[in-house]
Amino acid sequence: MKYFVIVILLFLMILPGFYQTGAEGTARKTLSAIMEKAKEDGAEMTLPDNRHAEKGLRAAKKAAGTFYSPDFQERIQCEQKRLETEVFGDYIAAWEKKEKSTDGQSGQTGGLADTEQVYLFFSSSMPDESVHAYLSAIADAGEPNVIPVMRGFVGGMADIQAGTEYFRRILKKDLSCQNAREPCQRYQLKIKLKSPLFAQYGITRVPTVVYENQEQGFLVQGDAGFDYLLELINREAKSSTLDNFINTIRKPRH
């Protein structure tokens, strides 16, 4: 599969001069002497043997074998599905795919083709305002082939309350709503909890947007408007349906 990577980065590099005066030259010589002495001392140092090393290695291999075994992985998947359904069902809502026309494109104006898929990778470490902006853009567009993805549950599967509170908060249509008189309205948006996707696409920073179309894939990183990130991707992808989808996102909301 052919991948193109577009990274939004801003580097500010300031390279000041050092050791301009005689005093600074003396300091440099002193520092060099200290570093040389530390190097000599380090060469003479010996660390005691770890008598638990072999036992620890066996235990680590046993734990890894158990964790990656098909049976244990199946149990994890079953538990994740149970939590998604029973605990987070109100916040990770099922989203039925829209009818597709005979040419493979969505019947909705600005929809993506069946072969196109967009993933938004995000995490709870991002500011709520940034996450909300992405999720609201995706929810308002109503395109089932655009999927928000998190690595896993907030606080892990052991802290159900933390995950519940997080989804309840970020999926509000109005972040300032406090459930005072009436329940806050929330987006019915499907969020995938798929850590393997992070590894599959090599995601190390969030937010990241990935676009796939058959044998081509494109990736862009950086905290910017969702439509702008997709526009950067489409400068390389040159997809007419993706261009239409971008225009759909940019339409004024009523």
Tell me the layout of helices and strands.
Elements: E1 2-7, H1 22-44, H2 53-67, H3 70-87, E2 116-121, H4 128-141, E3 146-150, H5 160-170, E4 192-193, H6 195-200, E5 208-213, E6 216-221, H7 226-237, H8 240-250
Parallel strand pairs: 1-6, 2-3, 3-4
Antiparallel strand pairs: 2-5, 5-6
Helix pairs in contact: 7-8
Q: Give the helix level as a range of percent.
A: 40-55%
> Rg to the nearest angstrom?
25 Å
> What is the highest CATH level, the class of the domain at 68-95 and 114-250?
Alpha Beta
What's the CATH topology name of the domain at 68-95 and 114-250?
Glutaredoxin
Parts with pLDDT < 50 across at least 5 consecutive residues:
7-24, 92-109
Can you tell me the CATH architecture of the domain at 68-95 and 114-250? 3-Layer(aba) Sandwich
What best-fitting shape do the alpha-carbon axes yield?
extended
Question: Strand pairing plus helix content: what structural class?
Answer: alpha/beta
pLDDT averaged over residues = 76
- Number of helical segments? 8
Separation of termini?
A: 40 Å
- If strands are numbered along the chain, what order do they take across the biggest sheet? 1-6-5-2-3-4
- Sheet with the most strands, sense and barrel status: 6 strands, mixed
Detailed description of the structure:
- The chain has a domain at 68-95 and 114-250: Glutaredoxin.
- Helices cover 43% and strands 12% of the residues.
- It has helices at 22-44, 53-67, 70-87, 128-141, 160-170, 195-200, 226-237, 240-250; strands at 2-7, 116-121, 146-150, 192-193, 208-213, 216-221.
- Mean pLDDT is 76; it is low at 7-24 and 92-109.
- It is α/β, with parallel strands linked by helices and 254 residues long.
- It contains 8 helices and 6 strands.
- The chain is extended, with a radius of gyration of 25 Å.
- Strand 5 (208-213) and strand 6 (216-221) form a beta hairpin.
- A 6-stranded mixed sheet has the order 1-6-5-2-3-4.
